[in-house]
Amino acid sequence: MSTTHPSSPATGAASPSPGQLGTLAKAAKRYDTSTRTIRRYIASGDLTGYKVGPRLVRVDMDELESLIQRIPTAASIEAGGNDVST
């Protein structure tokens, strides 16, 4: 009996290179948050999770970094810098 494994996620996107993948614990530690928060990002669709085998979940560390957004301050808005990228 043979089983087939997809080479890319169900979204059809290309898989990241192995060097970019990190554990949920590593991702949480890097941004001083909990693994539960990382799982929430995956569940909400804000972050792509990748299954490695039947139980392991990994995230693309570069994609995680792209979630970081600058919060505008009153001074930057007064200076005309109110265009916050999304």
Q: Kindly name the structural category.
A: alpha+beta
Main pleated sheet = 3 strands, antiparallel
Helical content stands at: 25-40%
**Mean of residue pLDDT?**
80
Give the ordered list of helices and strands.
Answer: EHHEEHH
Distance between the termini: 47 Å
Beta content comes to: 5-15%
Give the uncertain stretches in residue-range form.
1-11
What's the arrangement of strands in the largest beta sheet? 1-3-2
Total E-strand runs: 3
Tally of individual helices? 4
Rg result? 17 Å
Overall morphology: elongated
Describe this protein's structure.
This protein is 31% helix and 14% strand. It is α+β, with helices and mostly antiparallel strands and 86 residues long. A 3-stranded antiparallel sheet has the order 1-3-2. Helix 1 crosses helix 2. The chain is elongated.
Output the keywords:
disordered N terminus, 86 residues, three-stranded antiparallel β-sheet, 3 strands, 14% strand, alpha+beta, elongated, single chain
Summary, kept brief:
Helices cover 31% and strands 14% of the residues.
How is this fold's topology laid out?
Elements: E1 21-23, H1 24-30, H2 35-44, E2 49-52, E3 56-60, H3 61-65, H4 74-78
Antiparallel strand pairs: 1-3, 2-3
